Structure formats: structure tokens, C-alpha cells
Amino acid sequence: MQRTKVADLLRSNEIGKTFTVKGWVRTRRGNKQVNFVALNDGSGINNLQIVVDMEQFDEALVRRITTGAAISVDGELQKSQGSGQNVELLAKTIEILGDSDPDKYPLQPKKHSLEFLREIAHLRFRTNTFGAIARVRHSMIFAVHEFFNKKGFYNIHTPIITASDAEGAGEMFQVTTLDLDKLPRTEDGKIDYSKDFFGKPTNLTVSGQLEGELAALAMSEIYTFGPTFRAENSNTSRHLSEFWMIEPEMAFYELKDNMDLAEEFLRYLIQYALENCKDDLEFLSQRQQQEEKGKKEADRAMELIEKLKFVLEDDFARVTYTEAIQILENSKPNKKNQFNYPVKGFGTDLQSEHERYLVEKHFKKPVILTDYPKEIKAFYMKLNDDNNTVRAMDVLFPQIGEIIGGSQREESYEKLTSRMAEMNIPEEEMWWFLDTRRYGSVPHSGFGLGFERLMLFVTGMTNIRDVIPFPRAPKSAEF
Fold first, then answer.
1. Which residues touch 375 (CB under 8 Å, ≥6 apart)?
2. pTM above 0.90?
């Protein structure tokens, strides 16, 4: 018989019909007359209960149905006699597809710490928590593509290997085929990159934005969704060395258009999660509340589903950086020196604590900050008429702070080259980027959404290493 997924069977009302299910055993309990097996195949958060009449099966076979074992069951669907599920499967035949030694299997039916599960990331998909996260992640990936496809955007694959540094940040992973034990040298002793695979120094990309701009200035509206890499030695709960970025770029968009799109995009994703990930979100919410039981009321995070709905309830507040600085300077936490990073006027680089104060305490809604000082933003952002600020925008969310960063891009060749000179970015390395300002330049904008940052928000997890299947971080490249 053809296999039926557990999630489909749990929704079925075809009582009395025979089905085949396959999956991995979560638990087995019972007595000499009857055993109950909790089976899960990853199709949903809920297990299917298999009822095993011990008179019908060899005891040696049943002993092999241990936690972690893979089995195939043919059985009759019937209404459940117990609580917790509507239906269960009365087993007629059971086949062991793969044994699991109960004494060695790391995932025993008990609570495991997230730290321990990171050490066995090859098995953590089998837990309720990481199964739920994986399904929500898939739904968010699908929703991203669906949103942009509906709006007529084109998906562009930008290079993973690049000779440019989009952010000007420097911390990049170098790509080379040179023998590191026998590096070729020029006459003045420098590494001779003409002997390398690409004939020049190359790195893993930190962003697809610059190449995305090239496509947008021909196709009007595009987006990238790909892996990006940062070689920052930041071993924290908010940093990864490899993560995924969504970066739309739009010709003929000014800053307001950019903000409108970012707000519409985030609302779409959150609404999609609420409508399509209900069971997993409810489980993750319960998990979060269990984790926070010992905390004081003031220190507890907003309940997960309530937090997601919070984003949808009001239009996002739109505030300039200058206005935000004034609010923060006059705030109680700043006056009482309760911020870890005091706000000291125009030019202060806002931290997560400042962003969260604006969202959670002052405006009580998501916030879009605009018009930042040019000194703390990238070279490609459009200069305002005051020659002091740029048309940047950051979208701030509760509990997480910045979730999107973007800007209107500088379309003027003269202003762009002037900014590059200020920031010591050589024109000859960016000739291809500058060409777009030479030939038919137009106002254009874009933004970046770190996908794992979104996943932290949607799942309520607190460590970014728990929302990507195989995290890459300093001194950690397992699996």
C-alpha cells in the first residue's frame, strides 16, 4: 500500500479504512496485553498513536520498537479511546525498517538542553522543537518567494564568490586554490595572486546587493535570496558566520516606496506564518512559556503568537534618526544611566537596547527609522540635501531590534565617487558598479532582511544557532 503521511492521517475521518504509515518511534509504553507507540514522520508536530495488540505480534519484534527506530505499519484507522488525539491506528502488520540501540541513542524521551542538541545537530531534527523550526523555516522560504512572485519581481542568483566587499566591512572569508605552504611571491615579496584560480584576491560574499542593483537597473524589480558569509570572530547568540539574506532592489523606488514595500513584506510573512504554521507556533509558544516560568514577570518575553499579532495590529511608526535620538536622550533609562550604551546625541550608533525601547516602550508598535548620519552608514546610500544624513531606513521589531536595513541608493555618479573617495574605496575595482551611474541612472532603492533574524522572531528562539539547520560559527563547522 502507498504510504500516508502522519499529518494527513491525523486529519482523516476515514474510520475503518486500512492505511500504511512509516516513521520514527518517539516512545513505546504499555503492558502484556497492549502497547502504544508514538510515531512521527516529520510531517507535523503531532505523533500518531499506534495500538499494538500483543497477542497479534511476536514479543521479540515488539522489543525492537525502541525510541529512534524506523518502522512501517499497516493498520486500521479507528477513533481514539484515549485523550490527546482524535484517531489512532490499530496495527495489523509491523516491519522494522531500521533498528535503534536504546542504550546508545542520544535522544532519549526526556528534555534535552539546546546546548546539547547543538552538539548532535545531525539528530536534532527528530525533536519536536527542531522539527517545528524546520517546518516554519520552509514555510517562510516559500512565503518569501510567493510574495515577490505575486508582485512581479524576478529572482536573481548573485555570486557567492566575489572580488568586492559590498559593506566595506572587511571581515570576509578568502577563497583561494594557492598552496598555503608554498605561496607564490612577487619580486617585492607580496603574494602573487595572478597565480591564483581567479587571477586576483577573491572572497565569499557578504551581500548580493551590488550585483542585485545591476539587475534592477535593467529589470526594474528583482530580489536575491542566498547565503552570505561574515568572518567576524563574534561567538554570540546573535551572530553566524554563514547565514541567508533576502535582498530586493527596485528601480524607480524612493525612500518612501522602499519603506512601504518593507512593511508590506514583513506583514505578509507574519500573516503567512500565523495562517500556515498554527500547530508548530502553538507548540513553540508553549515551549517558550515553559522556559520562562522561573523569570520575573517584567523579564518575560511577549507570548509568541501575541507578539506576531502585535506586528499586524498597527501601521509601523516612521521616525527620523534625529527624532529618535531626542526621544532616547529624554527617556528615563537614559537619564537614570540604565542603558548599557548611553545615548550621547547625534552620531550615536544605536544599539539593540535603544531600538527595543523605541518599539516596546515608547511607540508600542514596529518602527522604521530613517535619515541616519552618513558617517555610520555605507557609501552607496543616497545623500540628503543637508549633506549630513543619508536616506537609510531600519525596520525595528519587538525583542529583536533591527530586522531590516536598507536605503535609497545614490544614483549620482559624482556624489557616489565622492563618497567612495571619503571611504577609501578604489574606483578602479568598482568600475562595473559605477557604469550603472554613467549609463541611464535612475532613483532606486533596496533593503536586506537577514533570514535567520526573521526566524528568531517568528519562532521565539533566543539563539540564532537554533534557527538554521547546521550553524557555522567561530571554531565550529561540524556536520
1. 347
2. yes
